[in-house]
Amino acid sequence: MRPLTEEETRVMFEKIAKYIGENLQLLVDRPDGTYCFRLHNDRVYYVSEKILKLAANISGDKLVSLGTCFGKFTKTHKFRLHITALDYLAPYAKYKVWIKPGAEQSFLYGNHVLKSGLGRITENTSQYQGVVVYSMADIPLIQVNVMITSPGRGTWLAP
Question: Domain 60S ribosome subunit biogenesis protein NIP7 pre-PUA, which positions (predicted)?
C-alpha cells in the first residue's frame, strides 16, 4: 500500500471532480477525521489515517483491502470509479438525475433511460456530464455520464 503519485492523483481527482466539483476537499478533510487515498494492486482505497496507521503492521502481500475501494487504474492508466464510491460521492454531487419507478428497474438491468423515464434532472446539466442517478425516493443508484441527444429523440442515460 502506497500513496498515489502526482500523476495518479491528478487523474483520479479529475474523474471525481466530474461528479462532485469543488466539493473534493470535503472528502479529505472530514469532521470525523482526516482521510486519504492509497493505492494497492492498482485499486485506490479511501481510508482514515487512524486505520492506515494500524494497517502499517500488516505486510503488503498479505493485505487484501483497506477502507473503501474508490476505483481502479486500468492498464492504460485511466481511472474507473467503482460503485462502492457512490455512498461518498452522492451527498456532494453537483448534477443529479431522478428516475421514475417504472424506468428504474430497466435501468438497473443495463438499459437506457428515455426522457419519459426521467422524474427530475438538475438544471444546467450539459452533455457528457458526470451525474449521480437517484430513484424517486432519493436513493442513489449509480454514477454515469449523461448523454443528451437531440430534442426530438429524447434524453438517454447510458449505464
Answer: 1-83
